[in-house]
Write a structure and sequence with these properties.
Chain lengths: 113, 111
């Protein structure tokens, strides 16, 4: 089946630790995105990448880092510099042709204590 | 990207049509109206999009007013599984265009 996978679904970390969230897609999409969602709020864009080896900051990039070494993969690292890392993290991808609608993964719920 | 305004919530009876409104009075000529929905604790799902003509697919219909300042998403026969947050978004379709999600409208379908 084609789609986007994020793992794990739930992640727990201690404050001060960096943590990397996985996002893989087999849709052959060029563009990939990371969003953060807090309770009762909409999604906010963290980083996005239109092609391999290139990425841009979104609206709330501070405290996060990404890499795009392969077309299929776009991991997100939540660093210790992120002041409020506990949130629901969503990865998405889209084609650069056609309608550009984004397809989302199931999300990773990160809890930092 | 232009902003949108949606009421915070609405409900409808199972089997009836759900009409979800959205205002986008500052939409520009090259911006499309997109609708996504998010079922609790899942990733958002694309529903439909349109520019100025009404659109229909297997999930829903999208009615855009002639002046394009507002639109309505119609779920013709709502089911309990349609209970979700629905996001109305306007954006152009350029490769660097971003989706900007507001708080959306929470639709509750009652038995």
């Amino acid at each position: 089946d084609g789609g986007i996978t994020q793992s794990p679904k739930y992640l727990f970390r201690k404050e001060g630790q960096n943590v990397t969230l996985s996002c893989e897609q087999n849709l052959n999409h060029d563009a990939m995105y990371w969003y953060r969602q807090d309770p009762g709020q909409g999604l906010r864009l963290i980083y996005y990448s239109q092609i391999v080896n290139d990425f841009q900051k979104g609206d709330i990039a501070e405290g996060y880092s990404v890499s795009r070494e392969k077309k299929e993969s776009f991991p997100l690292t939540v660093t210790s510099a992120q002041k409020n890392p506990t949130a629901f993290y969503l990865c998405a991808s889209s084609s650069r042709q056609g309608r550009y609608e984004q397809y989302f993964g199931p999300g990773t719920r990160l809890t930092v204590t | 990207d232009a902003k949108t305004t949606q009421p915070p919530s609405m409900d409808c009876a199972e089997g009836r049509a759900a009409n979800l409104p959205c205002n986008h009075s500052t939409i520009s000529g090259n911006e499309y109206v997109y609708w996504y929905r998010q079922i609790h604790s899942q990733g958002p799902q694309y529903i439909i999009h349109g520019l100025k003509n009404n659109e229909t697919n297997e999930m829903a219909s999208l009615i855009i007013t002639e002046d394009r300042k507002s639109s309505t998403l119609i779920l013709p026969h709502a089911t309990l599984r349609d209970t979700a947050v629905y996001y109305c978004i306007v954006r152009n379709t350029g490769a660097n265009s971003k989706l900007t999600f507001g708080k959306g409208i929470t639709l509750s379908v009652r038995p």
